[in-house]
Design brief:
Blueprint lengths: L1 E4 H17 L3 H13 L3 H20 L9 E9 L2 E4 L3 H15 L23 E7 L4 E8 L1 H4 L3 E5 L4 H16 L7 E9 L1 H11 L11 H15 L14 E11 L4 E8 L5 E5 L1
Parallel strand pairs: 1-3, 2-4, 7-8
Antiparallel strand pairs: 2-5, 5-10, 6-9, 7-9
Helix pairs in contact: 1-4, 2-3
Length: 280
């Protein structure tokens, strides 16, 4: 049995919240630079250069790269041989979020009730997805999910007869309707299958994958690239000013589903794809 003190989790989560908001991942910045070489629109090139500069300024001066520092979302894998000492895992994660968002001077954007809309003043509670796995390790993945992009996400319960073409149409239509609102270039997560809740979960989880990574299933990998090409032909471009860089990548995850269903979720992320991972 491996014992992990809750104080260690609080510390690591706090650090992840701060670092993710200050320092954009190398895969994202590298994708900006790669797409800059291919982008033909002058306005698009200008925006990509600005995004590269913005990421550098944020990292160098230790300030958030965007004013919307997001709602804290976690995917956690806890080994069956791990025991948390002190607070519960969820309590420790929320304490870490509160500490990180307060000490890192990150905007607190969470309201306790969607009806009364009173700010909790520490960006808690976080959204936490947990899975029990074998082993003696605790894996914590964090994303700061801004709502300019989250608001553009969609769910559709397709009929099985809609098939692959129905999936393609829904994904491209969702991105087209989103237009410049999610601050493109976007990273697009697509969940297919499961139930309403499971489909949304796997769509979100796909956003944690590195840009350029492909689904191990060859058919899904091919579909990812096909949809990415279709989306970049929409002409929305960086920040909606036109161009071929509407999306940096598109990731698909699937799950078993009912014979009568074909749920599809498109979860859009803005260019500030902020996430971190720690293994204890």
């Amino acid at each position: 049995m491996k014992i992990i003190k809750s104080e260690e989790i609080v510390k690591e989560v706090s650090n992840m919240c701060i670092e993710a908001n200050y320092c954009l991942g190398e895969d994202v910045v590298d994708s900006f630079k790669e797409n800059l070489k291919k982008e033909k629109s002058e306005a698009g090139k200008n925006i990509l250069n600005i995004l590269i500069e913005n990421a550098k300024i944020a990292a160098d001066t230790r300030v958030p790269m965007c004013q919307d520092t997001g709602m804290a979302v976690f995917f956690v894998e806890i080994g069956q041989e791990v025991m948390i000492e002190g607070d519960t895992l969820t309590e420790a994660i929320n304490k870490g979020v509160a500490k990180g968002y307060t000490e890192g001077f990150l905007r607190k954007s969470v309201v306790a009730s969607p009806i009364d809309r009173v700010n909790t003043n520490d960006n808690t509670p976080a959204v936490v997805h947990m899975e029990m796995v074998k082993g003696d390790k605790l894996k914590i993945q964090f994303a700061a999910k801004g709502f300019g992009s989250e608001n553009m996400s969609k769910l559709k319960m397709l009929k099985p007869s809609d098939g692959l073409e129905g999936i393609k149409d829904f994904v491209v239509e969702t991105v087209s309707e989103a237009g410049p609102n999610p601050c493109p270039p976007m990273i697009i997560g697509v969940g297919i299958g499961g139930t309403v809740d499971k489909c949304a979960e796997i769509a979100k989880k796909s956003l944690f994958r590195e840009i350029g990574s492909r689904n191990p299933d060859p058919k899904l990998a091919e579909l990812e690239l096909e949809l990415l090409e279709m989306i970049n032909k929409l002409g929305i471009g960086p920040q909606g000013f036109g161009g071929s860089t509407t999306a940096l990548d598109l990731h698909i995850e699937t799950y078993a589903t009912h014979i009568a269903g074909l749920p599809v979720v498109v979860n859009i992320n803005c260019h500030a794809s902020r996430h971190r991972e720690v293994i204890l």
